[in-house]
Design a protein that fits this description.
The structure holds two protein chains of two kinds.
Chain A lengths: L20 H7 L8 H33 L15 H11 L10 H17 L5 E3 L2 E2 L6 H7 L1 H14 L3 H32 L4 H6 L11 H4 L4 H14 L11 H4 L9 H26 L15 H4 L3 H23 L7 H29 L2
Helix pairs in contact in A: 1-2, 2-12, 2-14, 3-12, 4-6, 4-12, 6-7, 7-10, 7-15, 10-12, 10-15, 12-14
Chain B lengths: L4 H24 L3 H21 L3 H24 L16 H21 L14 H10 L3 H22 L3 H8 L1
Classes of the chains: A mainly alpha, B mainly alpha.
Chain lengths: 372, 177
């Protein structure tokens, strides 16, 4: 597919709306020789993570969990408790920042930082719109899978630095889980990459655009695609330590896992990292299997619904909505399913997900080669 | 990409400094845990230097293999060793004269080879487009035999590791009775 086939109907913007126009305009923005545009480019996903964790992440999760359990959730601060999150932030900001005396000061302090950087780095290659991507790399998808490794080191630093048995156990469980589930997750994503024939996230998304909307998405393009889709979704739950794979922070066993000892802003940073990686995996699954920033609405005859709802600005809307949908499913599962045991977790990864990931890999390869 | 040359240079030296200083910290630190965590920055810096050589695939592979695999394994090993923090590490300087001589000799030999034997080799063709595709094509065409041999070697290592780490049921039953 060539770049000119991008739908050009969108809101007129100063920076134009061709491929990566917004990010390139930002990169070229060098007032007084300072690369200010690069800093702004990196700050945009950061601000997005902060805003979304505040609104949808914290408040949304509390409300959704409350409704799932037939409760009301926060109701006191503001109408329907809308201002509850702001009250929580104020509380977190003025809390004492405790560093335990017997903790390893240095590792305890850098742990949350490394953790957040690890979850934030993958945002560099997520295309937020046809005109906006941090870095349009040839190896984008590979980068997004691989950079999680830094998060793992952050978790180990936090867990070991706390000098607390629960924290260490939480960290070790978490790392074992993330490292193991990377394998089925990577193989499942490889199926999508195989259908696209590229690892460039922007190109993967572009290949899924077309006037039939959702019918062009890879999930509906092959009869096997639902298998890697499902495998990646399950594995991504484990990678972000969400229920039913929340054994690293199992409240009833380990207090809170690797962040037991953290208070105040360090605790907030760890939470921000968790919400950051939740959106990251949701965005990756939407890009590889559900068309990223493409509109799912099809053209109906001359009623060009797809063309109207496509374009750079609509792209931002669609990818965020797709991501939010998967985050909603993650929250839904958290309040529905019980937690797995450690041995069940490993059984599921190595004896169920990995073999099925290989099967879907081979079937997708056959499909890609023999079905035009 | 349009980027200021000065910015480019600053970023390069930043990453070079990170790599060198963290590597020095790995060697000179008296605490094994700090050495292990410092390796993270070394690996990360080396990955960044690969990016400057426009070898983006190798850079990401560096992060996946070294940070995600080897460093995590190393940290696990260090953390589960009993009394690791109480062990006295020797990073003192011993045998100064022979050490300096060997160091000077190696550096001299390296620099000599560096300056006399060859100039920087230039490729005739400039790299265009994606490196990933070329790596894929080359692996599955020219280098398919080495590739398969490495896969078999890795598979053997994997089976061996699984065998060693396996829960020994027979032994366990004997101990119980």
């Amino acid at each position: 597919m060539i770049l000119t086939s991008l739908p050009h109907i969108s809101m007129p913007l100063l920076m134009g709306n061709s491929l990566n126009a917004w990010s390139e305009a930002l990169v070229g923005f060098n007032p007084m020789g300072l690369p200010l545009g690069l800093v702004i480019l990196a700050a945009i996903p950061l601000v997005f993570i902060a805003l979304y964790s505040l609104t949808y992440g914290v408040y949304g999760e509390r409300k959704i969990s409350a409704f799932m359990q037939d409760r009301l959730g926060p109701m006191e601060v503001g109408t329907w408790g809308i201002l509850q999150t702001i009250a929580d932030i104020l509380k977190l900001l003025q809390k004492e920042d405790i560093v335990p005396t017997s903790a390893d000061k240095f590792l305890f302090v850098i742990g949350p930082g490394v953790l957040f950087v690890g979850s934030f780095l993958a945002y560099a290659v997520l295309p937020f719109s046809s005109s906006f991507i941090g870095a349009s790399l040839n190896v984008g998808l590979f980068f997004a899978i691989g950079i999680v490794a830094i998060e793992v080191v952050g978790i180990l630093a936090a867990g070991w630095g706390s000098n607390n048995k629960w924290s260490l156990y939480g960290a070790v469980r978490s790392v074992a889980q993330i490292v193991s589930y990377e394998i089925p997750a990577a193989i499942a994503l490889l199926c999508g990459a195989m259908m696209a024939g590229t690892l460039d996230m922007q190109k993967i998304t572009m290949l899924q655009s077309g006037s039939y909307g959702f019918a062009h998405f890879y999930l509906f393009q092959s009869p096997i695609a639902w298998l890697p889709f499902l495998i990646y979704f399950i594995a991504s739950l484990a990678e972000v330590n969400r229920a039913p794979f929340d054994i690293p922070e199992a409240e009833s066993e380990l207090v809170a896992g690797y962040f037991t000892e953290y208070t105040g802003m360090k605790f907030a940073v760890i939470f921000l990292a968790e919400y950051g990686s939740m959106f990251m995996v949701s965005a990756i699954i939407s890009i590889v299997f559900l068309g990223g920033w493409n509109s799912p609405l099809p053209d109906i005859g001359s009623f060009a619904l797809n063309a109207w709802t496509n374009g750079p600005v609509w792209g931002v809307f669609w990818i965020i909505m797709k991501g939010f949908f998967f985050i909603f499913v993650q929250m839904w599962l958290r309040w529905t399913l019980p937690r797995l045991r450690v041995d069940q977790l490993m059984y599921l990864c190595w004896k169920v997900l990995t073999p099925f990931a290989f099967i879907s890999f081979v079937l997708t390869a056959i499909w890609v080669i023999y079905v035009p | 990409m349009i980027m200021n040359d000065l910015t480019y240079t600053i970023i390069f030296y930043l990453f070079a400094a990170i790599t060198v200083f963290s590597a020095a910290f790995v060697v000179f630190s008296r605490n094994v845990i700090y050495s292990a965590f410092s390796l993270l920055f070394t690996f990360f810096g080396v990955a960044a230097l690969y990016v400057f050589l426009s070898a983006d695939f190798i850079a990401v592979t560096q992060v996946v293999v070294y940070v995600g695999g080897i460093l995590v394994l190393l940290l696990f090993g260090v953390m589960f060793t009993k009394g690791i923090m109480n062990t006295e590490l020797k990073s003192d300087v011993l045998h100064i004269v022979p050490g300096t001589l060997i160091l000077a000799g190696i550096i001299g030999a390296l620099l000599y080879t560096f300056y006399t034997t060859h100039t920087w080799m230039q490729t005739e063709k400039q790299l265009h487009g994606s490196i990933v595709e070329r790596i894929g094509y080359e692996t599955m065409s020219h280098y398919v035999l080495p590739f398969e041999m490495v896969s078999i070697l890795l598979l053997a290592a994997l089976i061996g590791a699984a065998f060693l780490a396996r829960f020994d049921r027979l032994d366990h039953d004997n101990n119980k009775s």
